[in-house]
Description:
2 helices, 6-stranded antiparallel barrel, single chain
Amino acid sequence: MKLFxxxxxxxxxxxxxxxxxxxxxxxxxxxxxxxxxxxxxxxxQVRVQELAKQYLSENPVLKNSARSAYGTYxxxxxxxxxxxxxxxAMASQNGHTIEMLGxxxxxxxxxxxxxxxxxxxxxxxxxxxxFAGTWTAEDLLSFQDYxxxxxxxxxxxxxxxxxxxxxxxxxxxxxxxxxxxxxxxxVQAAHNAPASTPEGSVINVQGGLNFNKIVxxxxxxxxxxxxxxxxxD
Length: 233
């Protein structure tokens, strides 16, 4: 508990210093141009199917009575497993990074979070851990479904798209806006998604750092870690 309290104070002081020095809140995301004709990732269908089954079995709220007639979705920010595959974003003003891992479910209309949580790790420009904690999804602010892969490369219930989700970083008690981007093979070529759309997530901590840049895990490819939306309809 003492260590937890110390870490909480460290992050709070760090974020306060950022706010005092005039942290500029850039737009929530700065998508990096995507190289043409490049598949940035290969999704593990077995892992996703296992995660979806786990979510459905562990969350009674996903029974039909809680679902929307206009679309209920699972969302994944990174893929947990062995090993975990989080998403990575960078704060353009100082080079700090954040790793996000977790997921949940939401109704697209009316916009409603059914559940959602995960973990995060904040590191400085030297890759030294500043703080590690948990987050919970609070509100779905917007969602755009880009549809399934038009070339049939993935199951039809897998959807590309993006979502803006208000989350709470539980231990420091700070709100943030998490934006999740998901691409599937063929959606950009079919003009279902903007050509500059990345794969990954960014997060703007209210009163703190704006991790607004997708970290390129592979040079020249805006892939900051796996994400996915799965339609339950």
